[in-house]
Every structure is written in C-alpha cells, then in structure tokens.
Amino acid sequence: MSDPNTFTGAVLDRAGEHRTDDAWLAAQLEHPHARAVLVGTGGVGVAGGRLRLAPLRDVATEEPLLLGLDEEGPIFAADAGAAADLLGLRDAAATLPQSDSGLAAYAVALVSWHRRHRFCANCGNPTEVREAGHLRHCPVCGADHHPRTDPVVIMLVTRGDDVLLGRQAAWPPGRYSALAGFVEPGESLEEAVAREVQEESGVVVGPPRYISSQPWPFPAQLMLGFIAPWASGEPEVNDHELEDTRWFTRAEVRAAAESDDGELKLPPRLAIARRLIEHWLAGSD
Ligand SMILES: [Zn+2]
Description:
Blueprint: H1 22-30, E1 35-40, E2 43-44, E3 46-47, E4 50-51, E5 53-55, E6 65-69, E7 74-81, H2 89-95, H3 98-116, E8 128-130, E9 135-137, E10 144-145, E11 150-159, E12 162-167, E13 179-182, H4 189-201, E14 204-205, E15 209-216, E16 221-232, E17 244-249, H5 250-258, H6 272-282
Parallel strand pairs: 1-7, 11-16
Antiparallel strand pairs: 1-2, 1-5, 3-4, 6-7, 8-9, 9-10, 11-12, 11-13, 12-17, 14-16, 15-16
The site of zinc ion has 8 residues, from loops.
C-alpha cells in the first residue's frame, strides 16, 4: 500500500507501561504542557487546519483519558459533550494531516467507549476509570472492562480482470463497494471472509490475502482488508444487507476511479474499501 489508511498514523508514545502508575499519571495531569483533544457528540475540535489541542487546565472534564506523549508532553482526550464548535470526524479527516486524523480517531474511539460503558456488563453497577482511561473497573463485582475494538472483515473478490462489488439500498445512487461484515465469535478472519462473501453473494472464495487495516471509530470497528480469489458460484443477492452484487471489469472500475461522473460510484477516498480498490487497480491481484 502506498499511502497509509485514513485514521492511522498518530505520532505519539502510548506510554502503556506507565498507565498503572498513579504518581506518574498525577504528574502528567499537572504537566505544564498537558493538552487535550476535545471529543463531543458532534465530532472533534479543529483549529487552523490541525486537530485542536487545548491546554488541559482550560478543559472542564472529570475524566481526562491519556492518549499518550508527544515531544511536548502528555495528550489527553476529553469528553466535550454536546459542544457546538466541533467538526464531524469524517469531515475533519478530509482536511487534517495524516497524524492528526490518526490521533482524532484514537480520541474518538476511546471517548465513545467510555460513554457507552459506564455500567458493569457483569453486574450492572457503575464502573470507575482506571489505568489512565484504558480500563473501567467494577468496585462491586471486581470485573475489569477493557476498551472494545470490533473486528470487521472487508474484501474484494477477484476473478481474472473482474472484481465483485455490492451495494446497500441506503447508499447514494450508483455507489458500489467491497463486501464487509463483523467477525463472529469463534471465527478466524479467513473464515469470516469466506462466510460473509457466501452470505452476501453466494460466491465461494479461496484463501484470502491480507492487505491492510483501518480503525473505524463509528463507534469501535477495526476494518481488516483482504483480497480473496473467486473459487465458484455466480453472485446473487441472498440476504437482506445488499440490494445488488455483481462483477465489474477492471476498465469499469478504473473509469470510476478517475472520474466521479460515471454510472459507477466508488466509496470515498478515506475508506479502506476505496484503498483496496485502488490497490487492486494498481497491482497484479
Ligand atoms: Zn460488576
């Protein structure tokens, strides 16, 4: 892959080895250059084309969550609630530098998890923040809850010069993209690729090849990108997720990649689906 995927590339030391050291964490909170990424329901704080890093002392938050350290000092994420001066993460990513988009995605993923996990999944009592924001602990039953990342496989199925794409009814007219689905419990990534393709299109694939991954914090997915060779079967819609699934030729897909005016519309450039398609167009897969 030539370019890194959007929402990757945060340049900071996550300092995982210090998170359980309360004295160290207290020093980070008092650090003169402690800053915070503001994350609200409307997105992230942006200023001057960069992710806004507000001085932590100016941020009203009860639970600063440590993202890590850069050369100036610690960077936290702070829940800004329903603050109005925020930009949606997708819109922000379209303009921010790569490293800022990665840091923004990290902050959004962590804050979103805390918002949704205030109560113990085991006993229902309120939980407490631990490990600088990378754990919630239940003081009643003792359970520890770690931030979630939910794996999703996303794959291009290829047959010679053709590629299998599908569309959901809710998408803009003409949009087709890679097939995708959540990995289920007790399933390998390879098994998830084969099952999802079979469920969504009826097509049987051979062993998939891993290409790259992308955090997708809407709210907690990790997209795992594959290319899988066709083995048998012709595409037909056989579940309720897709409205259509069909083969496209390399020429059709190349034309769509070069111009947004054609009948076929590809997914937006920030999505790993688009990167997989461009990888296939550029290479020998
Ligand atoms: Zn509990």
